[in-house]
Amino acid sequence: HDDAAARRTMEEFAGFPASDGGDGDRTSSFYVDSDGLQRQIDELASFSDSPAPSVTRVLYSEKDVQARRYIKGIMNQLGLSIREDAVGNIFGRWEGSEAGLGAVATGSHVDAIPFSGKYDGVAGVLGALEAISVLKRSGFKPKRSLEVIMFTSEEPTRFGISCLGSRLMAGSEELSQSLKETVDNQNVSFFDAADSAGYKMHPEDLHNVFLKKDNYFAFIELHIEQGPILEKEGIQIGVVTAIAAPASIKVEFEGNGGHAGAVLMPARNDAGLAAAELALAVEKHVLESGSIDTVGTVGILQVHPGAINSIPSKSHVEIDVRDIDEKRRNNVIEKVHQSAIEISKNRGVVLSEFKIINQDPPALSDKSVISTMEFAAKQLNLDYKLMISRAYHDSLFMARISPMGMIFIPCYKGYSHKPEEYASPEDMANGVKVLALTMGRLSLE
Ligand SMILES: NC(=O)N[C@@H](O)C(=O)O
Ligand SMILES: [Mn+2]
Ligand SMILES: [Mn+2]
After folding, report:
1. Whose CA is nearest to atom 6 of ligand 1?
2. What is the CA radius of gyration of the chain?
3. Of the bound ligands, which one is closest to the alpha carbon of residue 163?
4. What is its EC number (predicted)?
């Protein structure tokens, strides 16, 4: 990919001759410090509650606080003005010449589910900060301000709520209410956990997290694809056109438990078997949806008391169902609910909870943001592919308050949510350049 084209574009943007220092010239207009970026990715991965190469970084944990401090350190070095809202969404701003105009924002998350990798979310935070460096190095002067956001809790790990920070930014009254009763599996309340991480707040402060609809002119998120398509097809950039609709359900069964030896099979009301049967029912309904785009996962299945010689008296199941077609997904959810009721009847156990935690609509990327990302990839002579995201992202909610777009880069065998997750420095650099060019261009609109 030739930087000359990018340099010409930057000159058009910036309206001044960019230096043409040639190879290795750190000041050349479009230089990505790949080594520096990789160093940051590795350093951030060290803030983990699980051994390398895995990363575990749960919301408001000590490691999360360390990671937040690390990100603010880089924002400081870049001379960005830093703001944090009540729940700890962190904003680093590069003031534009027309600060009154809606800013162009980018960002992602640094929280990581148990035993995952070091690129999910991180690529879109450290990569975004490097994109700002690229623009600053090129001498670019923004008109609209540029803002890098580190969202609080994209992963649903601690409180079962995904995209907690971006949902609130997008004005989720429902969430601001439910957080008042929300506790984690150690019975720690959301507010006590936030307080332990330095985010002391009162429930009514949650409304201050809400952002106005036209707060941002555009929001773009850089992310690893988390699927195998780009790598398989040898394409460098994914231009995301839509994000699939995620839903998550919590189910609890209660039976009467008892002695594994003394209670004969006909006399049992086994909550564990009810959970197992429901897990298979989820798979059945998803496979019968008639579309490959419907996916269903039982990522959490727990039985109580959890003793080999005790019949499970309680079971806890958490189900993740997604599809790019909201109606088709909701049909599956309804069928799963019917199965849960049937199973509880057939097995004489109580369906003590069937709670839909979230049932979000899919999001569409904004056409003009898409064409700007396509323009940027072309300028950089990078092949790109229009594609949908099956994973959800903070972009799903930012789309509610801002024209949204996402940039995907290939990742090794499409691995994600596991330690083997990997994106090459070259692919990271490509993503950073497309993001920088896209933000630069949108900032001048
Ligand atoms: N991008 C990403 O991994 N988001 C997840 O939280 C998900 O489950 O999709
Ligand atoms: Mn993730
Ligand atoms: Mn992510």
Report:
1. 155
2. 23
3. 1
4. 3.5.1.116
Q: Which atom of ligand 1 is nearest to the CA of 154?
A: 6
Return residues with CB closer than 5 A to ligand 3 (ion): 120-121
Atom of ligand 1 nearest to the CA of 223: 1
Residue among 367, 5, 19, 320 nearest 156 (CA): 320
Measure the CA–CA gap between 171 and 158, rounded to whole angstroms: 21
- Give the residue, out of 161, 389, 396, 417, with the most ligand 1 atoms within 8 A of its beta carbon, to mutate for a pocket test: 417
List pLDDT tens digits, range 149-208: 999 999 999 999 999 999 999 999 999 999 999 999 999 999 999 999 999 999 999 999
Residues in the chain: 445
* 179 phi, psi to nearest 5 deg: -65, -20
Contact 388, 244 (CB under 8 A): yes
Give dist(CA 377, CA 137) in Å, integer. 20
pLDDT confidence band for 141 (50 / 70 / 90):
very high
**Two structure tokens written together for 26:** 């750190």
Percent helix, strand and coil across the chain, each rounded to 5? 40, 25, 40
Burial class (CB in 10 A: 0-12, 13-18, 19+), 328: middle
User: What does residue 95 show for φ and ψ, rounded to 5 degrees?
Assistant: -60, 135
Q: Which ligand is nearest to the CA of 389?
A: 1
Pocket test for ligand 1, best of 393, 397, 409 (most atoms within 8 A of CB): 393
pLDDT at 7: 54
Q: How far apart are CA 236 and CA 241, in angstroms?
A: 16
Please list, residue by residue across 95-123, b when 16 or more beta carbons sit within 10 angstroms of its beta carbon and e when fewer do. Answer: ebeeeeebbbbbbbbbbbbebbbbbbbbb
**Ligand 1, atom nearest to 416 Cα:** 3
The closest-lying atom of ligand 1 relative to the alpha carbon of residue 417 is: 3
